[in-house]
Amino acid sequence: xxLFNRKGPSGxxxxxxxxxxxxxxxxxxxxxxxxxxxxxxxxxTARVLALRGVHxxxxxxxxxxxxxxxxxxxxxxPTAKIDAMELxxxxxxxxxxxxxxxxxxxxxxxxxxxxxxxxxxxxxxSKDNIELQFATNHLALESGREGRIVNVSSRRHQFSxxxxxxxxxxxxxxxxxxxxxxGQSKLANILHANELSRRxxxxxxxxxxxxxxxxxxxxxxxxxxxxxxxxxxxxxxGIASTS
Length: 243
Ligand SMILES: NC(=O)c1ccc[n+]([C@@H]2O[C@H](COP(=O)([O-])OP(=O)(O)OC[C@H]3O[C@@H](n4cnc5c(N)ncnc54)[C@H](OP(=O)(O)O)[C@@H]3O)[C@@H](O)[C@H]2O)c1
Prior knowledge:
Elements: H1 2-5, H2 18-21, E1 31-35, H3 40-51, E2 55-60, H4 63-76, E3 82-86, H5 92-105, E4 111-114, H6 132-137, E5 147-152, H7 178-202, E6 207-212, H8 225-229, H9 233-241
């Protein structure tokens, strides 16, 4: 409990809410894309950004869920500007279509929150035939005005395969480990943000790229856990605490 409430250099602690962090901030005139806005951390991020006046575009693969979340948010905040647009990160064709649709909306992009992700899936390939966690959590991130890019990574980036990122074995089913592949994709999130940040700076763009570990939050992310843990609750708690 003490650790939970201990404040860091920012003045916030693990128990600080998104509403508290953004208190007093006026986001009017800004537009944010939040991927995976239809559940978990993405929904709360989208809700609070909209509360602060930001126009939020949620990239969601399940449009029914996206519309329901949007309706609930507008019910709670009738002035909220929220849209749900179809985006399946396991398909580069869908990513490109989403980008084209967003560009043709004429909205400026001020904040990009790469939040959507999957964890510890059984070995599967994306629509482009790339290991699913690497494709969803990392590859789909390919991305004058000041802006922010936030990759929602995880402290599990420390638990990738022993070699780090197995570039030459991304699609190998043999030796595949769901949690290591998750860690690999999250390590890639951080390296991507670091390199993007360097390049943006080099090009004089007023855009920052950051990666964040959001802490352990009970969400749908853990629904592949029985695959990982064989259903042991203690093991599940262990995974949740380092996800
Ligand atoms: N929860 C934690 O403790 C924790 C800890 C560290 C890091 N994270 C990171 O936080 C982020 C959000 O996770 P969460 O905990 O909020 O989990 P979540 O509730 O499962 O949310 C994940 C979101 O990603 C979406 N998504 C998954 N695959 C997608 C795809 N192919 N195309 C488009 N959207 C897709 C999901 O859509 P559907 O609803 O359609 O599946 C869902 O909206 C993830 O990047 C995760 O790695 C979470």
